[in-house]
Automatic annotation (TrEMBL):
Organism, as annotated: Caenibius tardaugens NBRC 16725
Keyword Phosphoprotein: yes
Superkingdom assignment: Bacteria
Pfam annotation, one family: adh_short_C2
Group of enzyme by EC: oxidoreductase
PANTHER family according to UniProt: PEROXISOMAL TRANS-2-ENOYL-COA REDUCTASE (PTHR24317)
GO biological process, one term: fatty acid biosynthetic process
Name by which UniProt lists this protein: Peroxisomal trans-2-enoyl-CoA reductase
Amino acid sequence: MTGYGRDDDALAALTPALREGYFAGQTVLITGAGSGLGRGLAHWAARLGANVVLCGRKVDRLEDTAAAIGRYNAQVLVHPLTIRDPEAVQDLFSAVAARFGCADIVINNAGGQFPSAAIDIPPKGWHAVIDTNLGGTWHMMQEAARRWRDAGRGGSIVNVVAVTGRGMPGVAHTAAARAGVIALSKTVAIEWAPLGIRINCVAPGLISTTGMNVYDPRAVRAMTRTNVMQRFGQIEEIADTVCFVGGNASQFMTGEVVHVDGGNQIWGDQWTIDKPDYFKVDSIDD
Ligand SMILES: CCCCC/C=C/C(=O)SCCNC(=O)CCNC(=O)[C@H](O)C(C)(C)COP(=O)(O)OP(=O)(O)OC[C@H]1O[C@@H](n2cnc3c(N)ncnc32)[C@H](O)[C@@H]1OP(=O)(O)O
Ligand SMILES: NC(=O)C1=CN([C@@H]2O[C@H](COP(=O)(O)OP(=O)(O)OC[C@H]3O[C@@H](n4cnc5c(N)ncnc54)[C@H](OP(=O)(O)O)[C@@H]3O)[C@@H](O)[C@H]2O)C=CC1
């Protein structure tokens, strides 16, 4: 199984579920916008009428996304940074303020991990995953909230996480980080409600993106069978949900975790590394 994800022409040929103009007059900031889900989200936000802010570390990929969504005539700001650096995150929000005023919707999509048995994760790898997925997402959340508070207005945050309700064998670092983001989101959904700030999470199951290239193709094939629909999810299926949750269609929703996983959380036994024989069951007689 190769050739994961959708290219720009394929994304442009699809139609968002939400009505045209859903984000009209609003500014949507997307991290990890140079690839995969983030790039799909950039297409969706632009098509739904938003001003779009594209963030990630690699400026060439962000510029590429900006060129691709140029077809929708959206206003676009490209701002490279690592979300792991809180000062860089402050600079990002200042750049957004200078160009568009406050962001209205912040989509914390940047992140990732690598497959490894937990017992073998090196300290540097542990810190890379925790500092990106938990630390970086937190820097973005806190700075967005401070800007909204100081401007005397609210806003909406969507954190892209993962399905953490059960264990995540082979990606313990990300399980810890994403569970942390979910707990953090539920907590500040309460603290920041008086500020008019909503915070929700979207938990994708296995989605076909180029991010899958970090996994053994055999593991990917097996993982596509761990949801009750027996397939990969697609970028547009996440983009529709993130835009719904981020925008006014979900204005009475906060502190929620929306799973878009084909039923993986209720059923599938998902391993990103080889499943030990210990857990293998061939028949109900075993
Ligand atoms: C249960 C279901 C899970 C599957 C569903 C989820 C799927 C996805 O989320 S796929 C899409 C997400 N995209 C990615 O995961 C992208 C690929 N991953 C990464 O880019 C990295 O893993 C990263 C997120 C940690 C990037 O961090 P970065 O700051 O760029 O760190 P480095 O690449 O410099 O690495 C630091 C350190 O981490 C260890 N390490 C990194 N990659 C691997 C690897 N493939 N295998 C083993 N160890 C790895 C390593 O210790 C690195 O240090 P050095 O050894 O000094 O390079
Ligand atoms: N695909 C899937 O099955 C699933 C994905 N997810 C999550 O969804 C999100 C998007 O994943 P996907 O599109 O598949 O994978 P990608 O690897 O394509 O996207 C990850 C993005 O994060 C950006 N990024 C990584 N580190 C940083 C950083 N320190 N600062 C800023 N940006 C950073 C990368 O850009 P750059 O390298 O330029 O910085 C990249 O664009 C990730 O958080 C992922 O873990 C969750 C569950 C399942």
